Amino acid sequence: MLGTDELAREKSAGLRAAGAAVRELPTFEEGSLAGARLVFDATGDEEVNRRVWEEAERLDILVNVVDRPERCRFIMPAVVNREPLLVAISTSGESPFLASALRARLERMLGAEWGPFVARVGAIRRALRAEGVPLAAQTAVYRRLLRSGVRLLLREGRQSEADYEAAAIAASAGRPQPGRVALVGAGPGDPDLLTLGAQERLFDADVVFHDALVSAAVLALAGPQAELVDVGKRAGGRSTEQTAINQAMIEAARAGHEVVRLKGGDPFVFGRGGEEMAALLDAGIEVIVVPGVSSALAAPAAAGIPLTMRGVASSFAVATAHAADEEGPRLERLAEAADTLILLMPLATLRETAARLARVVGLQRPAALVSGATTRQQAVIRAPLGGLANAVLKSPLEGPAVLVVGEVVDALPVAASLAAAAADA
Ligand SMILES: C[S@@+](CC[C@H](N)C(=O)[O-])C[C@H]1O[C@@H](n2cnc3c(N)ncnc32)[C@H](O)[C@@H]1O
User: What's the rounded Cα separation, in Å, for the pair 135 and 128?
Assistant: First the structure.
C-alpha cells in the first residue's frame, strides 16, 4: 500500500479484514514492489504513479493507481459486507461517490440479518445435496426460505425460531406445498407510493393478477418468473367476471404458486378486496393482506388539499358516487355529517351528484376533481359545487378521478398553484 492518507488507511483495513498481509510504504523506491501480489497506489503523486505502474507491469504485479483508471489492472469496489454475502459495486471508476452512495442504500436494504440467513441457506443446501435431493426440489426449498418469515425472525434476534422454521421448510423438500394469495395495494399510480411490503410480494410472485389501473412502472417490479394477468375492469372495456378472477386465484394457489392480487390504491377500499378474501378463505387458501395508499387520501394530498386542518375541517368521509342511492339518501347524510367529503368514481354521475350535495351544503361549497393523481396525467379542476359539472364539460378529464368537497379545497394558497401546475402539465 503506497500512500498515507485516509483512503489508503481505509483500503488497508479492508484488505486486512479480507485476510491480506498488507505492507504499508510511505514512499516508493525502485524495487519496493518486489514480492507483492497486489499494489495499491494512493500517493496521488503523478511521477510516483508512473513509476509504480511501470515497475508493477514489469514485475507482472496487479496494480491499482487511485483515480487513474488507465493505470488499474484491478478495481476496488465498494462492498456491502454481510458475510458470507458480499455485494461489490463498481462504477468502473466513473464515480466513487455514487458507488459509496449506492453501498449506503444497499446496506439499508440488506439488513444485518442477511449474513446469518445466507449461512443457514448454505447449510441447508449442503444437507439437501448430501441427501441427493433433486435440483428442482432444492430450488423450491430455497424459494420458500426466501419468502418465509426466517429473515424477519433473524432480524428480530429470534434465532431458535428462525432455525425451527428453516428446518421445517428444509424437511418439506420434495413434497408439494400449497401456495398463497397476497392481496396487495398498488397505491394511486406513482410507483414511489408502493409500500416496501408490496415490492417484496411483487419481487417474489409467480403470478400477478392485476387491475387495469396499475401502472406499467409498478408491474415492472415483478420478477422475471412472474406471469402477469390483466383482470382489470375499465368503463366500457373488457372485464373479467369476479367469479372467474376468484377461481383463477384459487387454482393458481392450489397449484403451489405465490399469487399476488394487485389492486389500485388500497385493496379494501372499493376494490372488492373483501369479497375476494372471503372467496379465497372459503376455498381454504392462505391469504395475506398488504395495505396500499388509497386514492381517497392520496389524490387530495397530491393536489395540495388537506383533508383535515385545524379551524377548517376536523372530519372526513369517503364514499362512492355510484352506490350512493342503495340505502336511501346516504350521500346527503354524509355531506351533512363530515366536514370534508371524498367521492370515488364521481365522473359518470357528476352533475346529479353535485346537485344533490349542493342542496345540503350549498352551491358555493368549494369542490375539486383530481384526476390521474400522482401520475404525469394529474389534473385538478376546482369550482364551487354549482359550477363544477360545467367546468368539467369545458376541460374534460381523462382517467380516474376523485371528488373532494369542503372548505379544505380552498384552505391553502399553495393548493391553487399546485392545481394550476398540474392542469398545465
Ligand atoms: C374501483 S375504485 C378503487 C379504489 C382503490 N381501491 C383505492 O383505494 O384508491 C376506482 C376509483 O378510485 C379512484 N382512483 C384510483 N386511482 C386514482 C388516481 N390516480 N387519481 C384519482 N382517482 C383515482 C377513482 O375514483 C376511481 O374511479
Answer: 9
Q: Are 28 and 36 in contact (CB under 8 A)?
A: no
d(CA 13, CA 33): 19
Alpha helices per DSSP H over 172-195: none
Confidence band for 14, pLDDT divided at 50, 70 and 90: confident
**Are the C-beta atoms of residues 181 and 285 closer than 8 Å to each other?**
yes
* pTM for the full predicted model: 0.83
Among candidate residues 342, 273, 271, 303, the one with its CA nearest the CA of residue 423:
303
Instruction: Estimate to the nearest angstrom the gap between the alpha carbon of 393 and the chain centroid.
Output: 37
Grid cell, residue 353, equals: 351528484
Q: Which residue puts its alpha carbon closest to atom 10 of ligand 1?
A: 345
Question: Residue 397: what pLDDT?
Answer: 87
Point out the catalytic residue in the list 41, 190, 206, 211: 211
Check residue 412 and give its pLDDT. Answer: 92
Atom of ligand 1 nearest to the CA of 343: 25
CA 330, 331, 332, 333 dihedral sign is positive
- How far is it, in rounded angstroms, from Cα 78 to Cα 83? 15
Report the distance separating Cα 338 and Cα 46, nearest Å: 73
Binding-site residues, ligand 1, Cβ < 6 A: 188-189, 213, 263-266, 269-271, 294-296, 299, 344-345, 370-375, 400-402
Cβ burial of 63 (10 Å; 0-12, 13-18, 19+) is buried
Q: Please give the distance, rounded to the nearest whole angstrom, from the Cα atom of residue 399 to the centre of ligand 1.
A: 9
